[in-house]
Amino acid sequence: MKTIFFLTLILGILLSISLTSANIQESEISESLLYRYPHHPYRCGYNDNCKSGETCHMVGDICQCQPIVQLNNANQVYLIIKQIGVWQDGSRGGRTYSQYDVTIVNNGNNNIKQINIGTDSSFRLRDNSDTSLWNMVRIPNGILALPPIQQSINAHSTYTFGFIIEGAFVPNLPILKIVY
User: Fold this and answer.
1) 45: left (phi > 0), else alpha (psi -120 to 50), else beta?
2) Residues 6 or more apart in contact with residue 92 via CB below 8 angstroms
3) Which residues pair with 103 in a beta bridge?
4) What residue segments make up the domains of the chain, in order of their start?
């Protein structure tokens, strides 16, 4: 009888530990995603939040959350990411760097007044310096936005920005929000 009691007690403790561990792991994953993407969910309009993996499209007070799709000519707004060059810098310990040009294509019928492009750990600017980024600015949470000098991207036109990052891989750059 004591053996059954102890086995039940041990099983109960193990079950309790595994449930606590699962809750902690789920919490850690949520915190990790929040740390990696602190800009999600992105506020869209007054009452709506876009989910991770969506872009907020705002025309006046009207908001639509649409799935993020890059490099797709069917979209009204998309990015073309072009690697300009890759090199190893001996003066910086042989680190590899890449230069990219990114063209924002606005195929829509409305001028873009604001665009926010997300970044993650794949976007490591050389020397972690904004001097390695041109024609865009980094706002809190690493989000890229149009600089004050560029107040819009006209309908049926493009805008190009560039940067130098550490590494030889294409960084993740999802469009998070577009205000027309």
Assistant:
1) left
2) none
3) 80, 160
4) 24-179
pTM: 0.71
Distance of CA 66 to the CA centre of its chain: 15
Burial 68-84 (b: 16+ CB within 10 A, else e): eeeeeeebbbbbeeeee
Q: For domain 24-179, which architecture applies?
A: Sandwich (2.60)
- Along the 180 residues of the chain, how does pLDDT read in single tens digits? 555 554 454 545 544 444 444 343 333 333 333 444 444 445 665 556 777 778 888 887 778 887 766 545 556 899 999 999 999 998 988 999 999 999 999 998 999 999 999 999 999 999 888 999 999 999 988 899 999 999 899 999 999 999 999 999 999 999 988 999
